[in-house]
Fold this sequence. Notes:
By secondary structure, the chain is an alpha+beta fold. It has 2 domains: 5-66 and 131-222 and 338-383, 3-Layer(bba) Sandwich (FAD/NAD(P)-binding domain), CATH 3.50.50; 95-118 and 225-335, Protoporphyrinogen oxidase, mitochondrial, domain 2 (Polyamine Oxidase, Chain A, domain 2), CATH 3.90.660. The protein contains 10 helices and 20 strands. Strands 1, 2, 10, 11, 12, 13, 19 and 20 form an 8-stranded mixed sheet that branches. Strand 11 and strand 12 form a beta hairpin. The two termini are 31 Å apart. The structure holds flavin-adenine dinucleotide.
Amino acid sequence: MKSAVTYDLLIIGGGISACVFASKYLKNNITKKVGLIEIGRGLGGRSSTRISKKFEGWKLNHGSPNFNISNSKNNLLLKRYIDELLENKYIKIDDSEIFLLNEDSNLETKKKSEFSCGVNYLSLDSMSELSKKIIESNNLKEEIDFFFETLIVDMKFNDKEWLLTSKNGKKFKSKYLICSTNLLLHKRSLELLNVNQIPLRKAIPIHNDKKIDLLLNFLEEQTFIPRLTFLIYTNENYSYKDYYSKKQRYFYLKNNLEKKYRFERIIFQSQDNNKLGIVVHSKNIELINSYISAKDEEVFKQEIITSFNKLFEENSVINKLNFDEEISIMKWRASQPSGIAIPLSLQFSRKYRIGFCGDWFEGDGFGRIEGSILSALILEKKIKDLIK
Length: 388
Ligand SMILES: Cc1cc2nc3c(=O)[nH]c(=O)nc-3n(C[C@H](O)[C@H](O)[C@H](O)COP(=O)(O)OP(=O)(O)OC[C@H]3O[C@@H](n4cnc5c(N)ncnc54)[C@H](O)[C@@H]3O)c2cc1C
């Protein structure tokens, strides 16, 4: 058996909530030994960027392309943090054009929607860079041990200490634990991690902690929205019909059109190599199923281009694609939580020295970056005086 590395605090996950939590926590606890464990190759989680080895110079935000803060006026904690990000020049106001495509594929200026209400912000670099910059702020990156490509599959709590085991047998010990993902708390972990009990339930059996029991009960009811994203690497000469020059341009589809074309929104992302990347999102179950059952992925991709061209046939600013564009497809089993949101009062168990953050908590930002950031800020405040 490999011997365990011991930490004061371990964080599972490297998405934006984990990065916000880690940077705030370390600022106040510089002497603590902190480790961060993430299954991906880098930071960012669902708000990250595909930096392709095959297509040099391309950076496509394939999860969340930007983020909106629907309500910071009534929330000083969030307002101050967003101001901090603006001052540090990690983000800027996103004044890109947002259109709603109506039945005739004509353009209407977009009003309110889940992803655009309130104030919209854009990372000054890519979305993955935003998480990186957050964790690097105050020069704290060196204070954290990062373990990438490491999937935690088992958790144990013994003698006031957490013991985590990764899929490849690596052991980690810590006095406190933060879970920024709910994978290890939810029934979907059974299939994904190939385990026979939800890892947190196994670590803390029922009737030991009311908060943990409630948390797991709420999570039983939480569902997730699957999504497909198509990353289109357009060819050399592809451009807009007009002279639009901002970083991104968003096209949402009205309900009827979304049903017909099976696309949810299309985001044009200008690249440093002067090319124009396109990311198409879909949460249409029929399309997701036809992707899963597609015998020939190339045929499926050509169908996507056909639909794209039909959608923008009469459009005044968007050109058609040529069918020789490269497309890569990303399937998200759980792109966003939906249904029941978890009460913030269940964020921390003192008895078991475990805290939770992420977009799966209640509030205006449920299912979005706004909720991830806010839950991390609230958690850090809650435990500041407890973790000594
Ligand atoms: C396609 C798509 C479009 C979106 N669009 C928007 C949008 O326009 N606006 C918006 O605000 N939000 C949007 N969202 C949602 C937004 O991306 C999320 O709310 C936010 O990124 C969640 O951050 P998080 O830190 O809470 O969770 P995550 O980013 O999911 O971070 C959790 C991390 O934990 C890791 N992890 C999980 N289990 C384990 C384990 N057992 N061991 C090790 N590591 C583990 C994961 O790999 C992940 O990196 C979108 C999401 C998707 C997928």
